[in-house]
């Protein structure tokens, strides 16, 4: 009896009940809120974007109450593991390295990765061509790892907490180019005021060794029942055409891919 009470106390302290683990009547999603068109924060503090709409649609499909928690990218996986929320939907690539810490649903989007620079910028994308070139990336991302693994001893990688800061440095000429998801760079820079001065350059990068299998929803490894529910909900939203309706608000192409 004492052992049962102690176990119950531990579960309660972690903020999870056995009923919640099975039913998931409420699902809390961690979202970055600084990565348009996937997510951004309005001046009012309201979170908007594709990931926000998807989170709400998934909860509706699962007949669960949805709570959305804003979280800086640097701490997004640690905060999941610390139970600040139950799942991450934040344009996170499914990679083997991340799979060591969390489980993923199947993909819910697949975006190519590109470099963007001021028009007329001439960069040769080889180790010799990138020697000493300042390239901006968001810290602790697949883009950061790609540059480090392929050009780390030549390129000067400048890491940022969010792309907003990287855009400011690019416009000011403090860095030569930025590597990121094509859709985020397009929406966050090219489509904004002054974006006509910039363009995509270089190769389109999709190598799964660095960029994974697409964007998935990350879940704690012990919450496999939630991963299954989310997987089923993603498939259901696509079958019903709801996914396509949401995606069409943000993308002019098939964001799901093949």
Automatic annotation (TrEMBL):
CDD domains: PBP2_HisJ_LAO. GO terms for cellular component: membrane; outer membrane-bounded periplasmic space. GO terms for molecular function: ligand-gated monoatomic ion channel activity. This is Nickel transporter. Residues 26-254 form the Solute-binding protein family 3/N-terminal domain. Belongs to the bacterial solute-binding protein 3 family. It comes from Photobacterium ganghwense. Residues 26-253 form the Ionotropic glutamate receptor C-terminal domain. Keywords: Periplasm, Signal, Transport. Residues 1-21 form the signal peptide. It is found in: Periplasm. InterPro entries: Iontro_rcpt_C (IPR001320), Lys_Arg_Orn-bd (IPR005768), SBP_3_CS (IPR018313), Solute-binding_3/MltF_N (IPR001638). It comes from the Bacteria. Its main location: periplasm. SMART domains: PBPb, PBPe.
